[in-house]
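queue> pop job 88
queue> type: inverse folding (structure -> sequence)
queue> payload:
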């Protein structure tokens, strides 16, 4: 979703830092939370804002020139913050020998397997 690209650019949040969480519900809705102030808000894109505009170029121009309040409905949220990312140790997969995050290792027949290797052996049973 290109909206997530914009959020990464504008906020500096990223999946790698663990401060951007993607929950794919198929919506153009985004929740922002400031751990310092313990306040957050949810912004939902008003898809109907320029829907009546048939010409793609005119629709893009209209969206780019719009005020944010015309593009998004917002509301404060009262949710606990997402836990900060934990750095986990890496374990070597006994199937492919690649290092894999500990929480993604599956134990099968006494072997530590990454998810793809686990799926291969599990499918054979």
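queue> result:
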């Amino acid at each position: 979703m290109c909206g997530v690209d914009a959020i990464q650019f504008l906020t500096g949040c990223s999946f790698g830092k663990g401060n951007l969480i993607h929950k794919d519900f198929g919506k153009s809705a985004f929740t922002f939370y400031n751990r310092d102030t313990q306040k957050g808000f949810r912004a939902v894109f008003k898809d109907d804002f320029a829907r009546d505009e048939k010409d793609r170029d005119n629709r893009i121009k209209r969206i780019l020139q719009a005020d944010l309040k015309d593009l998004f409905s917002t509301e404060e949220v009262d949710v606990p913050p997402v836990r900060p990312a934990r750095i986990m140790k890496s374990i070597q997969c006994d199937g492919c020998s690649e290092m894999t995050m500990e929480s993604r290792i599956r134990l099968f027949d006494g072997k530590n397997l990454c998810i793809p290797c686990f799926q291969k052996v599990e499918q054979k049973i």
